[in-house]
Write a structure and sequence with these properties.
It is a single chain. With about 170 residues, the protein is an alpha+beta fold. About 25% of the residues lie in helices and about 30% in strands. It has four helices and nine strands; from the N terminus they run E-E-E-E-E-E-E-H-E-E-H-H-H. The longest helix is centred in the last third of the chain and has 16 residues. It starts with a strand and ends with a helix.
């Protein structure tokens, strides 16, 4: 069983990885055997948070929609992509991202709730789940000349969205 711990005292004191009631073998936690496809991580539970859906990815991390058994609202869980697990530079960048974002309070910056680490030292963190299209998705739908996107996202609306992004970045 993979036991996870956290540096945050208000977070769960330990988390175990469970998959549909079956204990995940310790080899799951090591770089060489970790899932290479984010869909392989679905239904794994991190101490009461079940990974239900792959939401997206960045340069070196994956984001999942996760739900706690006792809570109605889901959260986002961000994990370091397996190809970067065990790489000190990327693990440090990932932790720095979470710690920095957790100190920021701005309406255009996603709030970070908790930062945790697997017993092997692999980091993950939870944050508010946003239910909106990303600016990148909007721009892609416009570039494909989708009729609904053109009527839904006028130039005025796009500029308001862009200004909110700039406001968050400037913060």
């Amino acid at each position: 069983m993979c036991i996870l711990t956290t540096r945050e005292p208000n977070f769960l004191s330990f988390l175990d990885l469970r998959q549909l009631g079956n204990v995940v073998e310790p080899s799951f936690c090591v770089k060489s055997t970790m899932a290479l496809d984010p869909e392989e991580l679905l239904q794994i539970t991190l101490g009461g948070l079940t990974l239900e859906r792959f939401v997206g990815h960045g340069t070196f991390a994956w984001v999942f929609l996760a739900r706690a058994k006792d809570l109605v609202e889901p959260v986002a869980v961000k994990v370091l992509a397996p190809s970067f697990v065990g790489e000190p530079e990327f693990e440090a960048r990932f932790r720095n991202e979470a710690e920095t974002a957790s100190r920021l309070e701005h309406p255009n910056i996603v709030p970070v709730h908790d930062l945790g680490v697997v017993e092997t030292g692999d980091p993950f963190y939870t944050m508010k789940l946003l239910r909106a299209q990303s600016l990148g998705d909007i721009i892609e739908s416009l570039s494909r000349r989708k009729a609904t996107a053109a009527t839904q996202y006028t130039l005025s609306r796009l500029l308001r969205i862009f200004l909110k992004v700039c406001d968050g970045v400037a913060y």
